[in-house]
Design brief:
The protein has one domain. It is built from five helices and no strands. The protein has helices at 2-10, 12-37, 42-60, 65-92, 107-138. It is globular and about 60 Å long.
């Protein structure tokens, strides 16, 4: 049992790396859908470019922890902003009960995305702190 717990504890890094790859893939797919659904106009290219850059920052967090920290925090903040926007839209539709249920379908993925960004950011912060402590111990 002790070996199993140690195996699970050591596999956490691989889970977080897989999460980074999934977030990157989802962001790339979102960028493609954004461009295709808007018939390739310039604002859709700009929005897709921002999405690809943030997704790439999260993916680069595997090797470059500071970039991954910024990318994870950007995902968490963007998801929080989208959640607030969605909740305000729901609050505005409360007088029409048959219409506001459609907004609830978007809450789940946003919570998952925000949690994924925070997990990636916390892992990068932990690695940055670990490197800082090692540097201070040698100095």
């Amino acid at each position: 049992m002790k070996k199993f717990i140690i195996l699970l504890a050591n596999s956490q890094r691989y889970f977080i790396h897989a999460l980074r790859i999934v977030i990157f893939t989802v962001f790339i797919l979102f960028a493609v859908v954004e461009i295709v659904s808007n018939q390739g106009d310039y604002p859709s290219y700009a929005g897709a470019g921002v999405v690809v850059i943030i997704g790439t920052m999260v993916l680069l967090g595997i090797w470059f922890y500071k970039i991954g920290l910024v990318g994870g925090l950007l995902i968490a903040v963007a998801s929080l902003a989208a959640l607030i926007f969605l909740l305000v839209a729901i609050a505005n539709k409360l007088h029409e009960p048959h219409q506001f249920f459609q907004f609830f379908s978007g809450l789940g993925p946003l919570f998952i995305l925000m949690a994924g960004g925070l997990i990636c950011a916390s892992d990068c912060a932990k690695q940055i702190f670990r490197e800082y402590v090692l540097r201070m111990g040698k100095g």
